[in-house]
Amino acid sequence: MRQRAFNGLSVLAAAILLTASALAADTTRLPIGDPERRQRTAPVIVDTIVDTRANEQISTAELVNRLADVQLVFFGENHTDMDFHRAQAQLIRSLHQAGREVFIGLEMFPYTRQPELDRWTDGELTETAFLAAAKWYESWGYRWEYYADIFRYARDNELRMFAVNSPRHVVKAVRTQGFDGLSDEDRKHIPREVVTNSEEHRTLFKASFESGDSLHADISEEALDGMLRAQATWDAVMGWNAVLALREHGGPNAIMVVLIGAGHVTYGLGSQLQIEADFDGNIASVVPVPVVDFEGKPIPEVQASYADFVWGLPPTRDPLYPSLGVSLMGSIGKDPNKIIQVGNDSIAAEADLRVGDILESIDGQEVGALGSLRQIMAAYNWGDSAEVQIGRADETITKEVVFRRKHP
Length: 408
Hints:
- The chain is an alpha/beta fold.
- The chain is 31% helix and 21% strand.
- It has two domains: 11-313, Rossmann fold; 326-402, Roll (Pdz3 Domain), CATH 2.30.42.10.
- Strands 3-2-10-8-4-7-5-6 form an eight-stranded mixed β-sheet, with helices on both faces. A four-stranded antiparallel β-sheet has the order 14-13-15-16. A two-stranded antiparallel sheet has the order 1-9.
- It is globular, with a radius of gyration of 21 Å.
């Protein structure tokens, strides 16, 4: 069985599963979304784009043609699958070469980090300086190398990049306190209207839960409502910030391509649902789908309502770079480096790291918070090993961790 990506998410991110990058087969065949397309399927063919409205197989060049009257594209991704990012880069290049004014929206940054992005695209920062200034591993956590080619292309070709996400604490506040409990300051970060009563969105959300997930196996309806409310807010903030950037900076030929987790895109129930009633431009969704999933099961087709354009990719591979496979307590408790979840078949599980352990250091580098774990892990590749110190009960234990991939 292949190792599923599990990237040390905070409990808030782990609790909102639609941000997860993996595409489970049981979420690709739901009878939801567009009423006409939910009744039929679309084939998944490697290196082929399927227009699910027309039920036609098309090339990248033809996709660009069919986006001629589109101003906003939500391009769903699996954060740790390089083929997804290559497809994103291919579309961005093709649109730019066709003469479109291309903007790139980024889930990975709260919109408050826009100044650092502007300095990057203006060529003022080296890569090292940009990662530090933008706090990449604090804001995101996935390896820079997955996204580097897109960022370099944007800088070298003077394409504007826009941070569209919400400050993390705002989404957390919506989940735990509700909209009525928000402070006046937090309320400024979210749109006036957030759609929270979509039954189809609820269906998709619940279908995304994995069996055996210890954080969510016995979740109450009240907790589920809080998570759905937070997810809808997250979707709305990203959609509206993309629209605002497009309106403020874009000309008549502009197109905004938003790079965003597939769970925010599929079935038109994420960011698109939140903005389409008030956005007078055309919107399209593009979601790549591997022909074989993480568990080695073929995905020969998806529901045609899954996305406007389905881009077939090679079988899902192991992530290019290793992750330890734990979630930490983060900012919600007194021990930010306390392990609250260990991924099944993960490197951490193999090394007998357990829920409740305190992750103290890796090769002598102190793990003080989630951001520091992400940055520490960015130095490792498959085949490397590390000495991990954990606190368990009243003792400090040293474990040797070897970053090995698992294969059938």
